């Protein structure tokens, strides 16, 4: 263990893989997987299920933010369920920021998909796959910048690309885990085709598990590869707010 924090001294990757089952994480993982599976599998009330699934996705996004934040603070175990006493600041705004970062990160990928729309070979199109991989590497670091700074403008390439390039093994690792959150659930649903509910359940569990691991890894990324300029901007903004309050 690190003597100054509760953060373990094991490799970040190993730590991230065990993180989802530490503390409250295992309960959130299990309950969250069941909720997502029930909502995504329900053939009845599809519109209502879709709306509820969107709300729960926003809630899980807030949990992603929480994990990154508590990791940066040095905590070793997964936090409890996100607070919903202030849904605008705690749930809605984080979700909208994450959605904005997602669209920006995968915009080139979306453009390629639009150009080659309708082609069965899209998923083996080299350009499509390259843009997807690039977005997968870009997204976690861009999200990290937004979480740390509380400013979506910090998701721009000028802030993100230097961090990615400066810690390529780490950033590539995060990109790989992000791709896993998309690909593994799809594969599980295909494999479990004759048992669709179990496919949905296992897919949801794997997606939430990898999401928790990714958010933990993002927090460790910030601790191991801090952005001095970003931290300075955050401190300056906090000082300005304190001055305004006085």
Radius of gyration: 19 Å
Q: What's the N-to-C terminus distance?
A: 40 Å
What is the ordering of alpha helices and beta strands?
Answer: HHHHHHHHHH
Tally of discrete structural domains: 1
Classify the secondary structure makeup into a structural class. mainly alpha
- Main sheet specs: none
> Shape, please?
globular
Output mean pLDDT.
Answer: 86
Low-pLDDT parts are: 1-8, 238-246
Question: What portion of the residues fall into strands of 2 or more residues?
Answer: under 5%
- Discrete helix count: 10
Helix content: over 70%
The tally of beta strands, per DSSP, is: 0
Task: Give structural notes.
With 246 residues, this protein is an all-alpha fold. It has one domain (12-235). The chain is built from ten helices and no strands. It has helices at 12-18, 25-41, 46-72, 87-105, 107-115, 126-149, 157-166, 168-191, 196-224, 228-245. Helix 6 packs across helix 7 (157-166). It is globular, with a radius of gyration of 19 Å. The model is unreliable at 1-8 and 238-246 (pLDDT under 50).
Topology:
Layout: H1 12-18, H2 25-41, H3 46-72, H4 87-105, H5 107-115, H6 126-149, H7 157-166, H8 168-191, H9 196-224, H10 228-245
Any descriptors?
globular, 10 helices, disordered N terminus, 246 residues, mainly alpha
Would you summarize the structure shown here?
Helix content is 75%, strand content 0%.
């Amino acid at each position: 263990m690190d003597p100054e924090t509760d953060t373990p001294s094991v490799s970040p990757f190993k730590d991230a893989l065990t993180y989802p089952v530490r503390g409250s994480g295992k309960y959130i993982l299990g309950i969250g997987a069941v909720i997502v599976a029930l909502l995504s599998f329900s053939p009845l009330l599809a519109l209502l299920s879709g709306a509820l699934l969107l709300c729960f996705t926003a809630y899980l996004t807030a949990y992603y933010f929480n994990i990154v934040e508590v990791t940066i603070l040095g905590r070793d175990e997964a936090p409890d369920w996100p607070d919903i006493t202030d849904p605008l600041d705690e749930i809605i705004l984080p979700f909208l920021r994450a959605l904005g970062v997602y669209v920006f990160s995968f915009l080139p990928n979306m453009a390629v998909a639009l150009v080659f729309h309708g082609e069965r070979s899209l998923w083996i199109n080299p350009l499509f796959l390259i843009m997807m991989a690039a977005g997968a590497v870009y997204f976690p670091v861009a999200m990290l910048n937004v979480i740390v700074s509380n400013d979506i403008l910090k998701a721009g390439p000028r802030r993100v690309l230097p961090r990615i390039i400066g810690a390529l093994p780490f950033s590539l690792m995060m990109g790989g885990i992000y791709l896993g959150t998309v690909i593994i659930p799809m594969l599980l649903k295909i494999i479990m085709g004759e048992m669709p509910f179990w496919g949905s359940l296992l897919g949801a569990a794997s997606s939430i598990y990898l999401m928790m691991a990714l958010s933990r890894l993002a927090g460790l990324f910030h601790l191991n590869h801090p952005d001095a300029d970003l931290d300075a901007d955050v401190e300056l903004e906090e000082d300005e707010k304190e001055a305004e309050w006085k």
